Amino acid sequence: MKADRKAVERLIKTARGQLDGILKMIEEDRYCIDISNQISAAEQVLKKANREVLKAHMGSCVAEAIQQNGGEEKLNELFTTLDKLLK
Amino acid sequence: MKADRKAVERLIKTARGQLDGILKMIEEDRYCIDISNQISAAEQVLKKANREVLKAHMGSCVAEAIQQNGGEEKLNELFTTLDKLLK
Amino acid sequence: MKADRKAVERLIKTARGQLDGILKMIEEDRYCIDISNQISAAEQVLKKANREVLKAHMGSCVAEAIQQNGGEEKLNELFTTLDKLLK
Amino acid sequence: MKADRKAVERLIKTARGQLDGILKMIEEDRYCIDISNQISAAEQVLKKANREVLKAHMGSCVAEAIQQNGGEEKLNELFTTLDKLLK
Predict the structure, then answer these.
(1) How far apart are the C-alpha atoms of B26 and C83, rounded to whole Å?
(2) CATH of domain B5-85
């Protein structure tokens, strides 16, 4: 992976901590909307992690492939991923 | 929380397992696109958990409030959450 | 439709005006990112219109059905729509 | 714009036709859920148009900039757009 490894790790660990918190909230039978808000917060952290991974990928792997051989294969692979995320 | 507690717990634990897998992938310096796809998969699981929580909330807390007092307060609270999620 | 008809009409007409602007930008061969940003702006307006329609629906049709007969059918119909939008 | 101009135009015109249909549905006081579904359909068409514009941009403007000067500026501009769309 080309993204800042420490930064992405930190985000994934943050989300994992949020999920542990959510499991505790479920066990304590907390209010639905509070649980929903915490799940949304964890989603936001994962989205940020995903953006970091994809941007670093474009700025390194994809850019290098473009410089070496036009990058058609890497671009198509990236487009497949973006097509799903931008649905 | 009014949603099927076991089902939501299971989804959150699935997502937590996926995050553990992602941390391992980062450590093993796996390919960016594979990591991105795994992050997206975890996001999908959290979204499903969130939908379950919110639908159960509407079908119980919100519905009860509507029957008891028109539910204005519960509806407004729900709308605030939906406004954020449907952005 | 139960939403403020004038408000929703206004949003849809705003989006339609944006689409006319985008067609003109395409004809003038404008820069990709500018066109993308305008398409995103139109999407945001439609999302706002959709939120208004759905919130008014919940606060009227769904709430009335809940008061009259528990609203199971209306809730299921709403959940089908929300399941798609919250994907 | 670098995307297939005819294809993007066709999508934008499709969405515009859908918006005209929605305005008619509002005037005829049609059912909320039907209107919501039509708004969602128009959003999907715009998202598809946006994906086409952005992918063509990456495969042409951004790729050329990467080959000519590393593309830092074009990549950052693209990242700003993707950051908003992947929120």
Answers:
(1) 32
(2) 1.20.58.1000
